[in-house]
Amino acid sequence: MPQPPSSQRIAEIHGLRGLALALVVVFHLFGNGRVSGGVDVFLALTGFLVTRSLVRRVTSSELHLADHYGRTFLRLSAPMLIVLAGTAVLMVAVMPRSMWSSTLREIAASAAYVLNWEMIRSQLAYGAAGPSASPLQHFWSLAVQGQFLLVWPLVVVVLGRLARRLRLVMAVAVALATVASFVFAWRLGAADQQVAYFHSWARFWELGAGALIALGLDRLRPPVVVRPVLAWLGLALVASSGFVLDGAALFPGPWALWPVGGALLVVIGSGSSARWGPQHLLAVRPLRFVADISFPLYLWHWPLLVAWLSWTYATRTNVLAAVVVLSGSAVLAWLTHRYVERPVTRIGAPFTGVVRLVTVPVVLGLVVGGTLVVTSEVERQDAARKAAAVEAAERYAGCIGAAALDPALTDCERPSTLVDASLGYQAPDGSACWSNKERPVELRMCTLGPKTGYTRRLLAIGDSHNHQFVPAYRAIAESRGWRIDVAGRAGCHWNARDRVGTPEASVELCNQWKRKLAAYIASEEGIDAYVVVHSSLVKVEASPGESEVEALSRGMADAWATRPDPSVPVIAVQDSPIFEGSSALFARVVQPCVDDHGLAASAECSRRRGRVVRDDGSLGATRLAENAHHVDLTSYFCAKRRCSPVVGNLEVYLDGFHISPLYAETLAPYLGERIARILRRSPGSS
Question: pLDDT (tens digit, 9 = 90+) per residue, 391-407?
Answer without folding.
Answer: 887 888 889 999 999 98
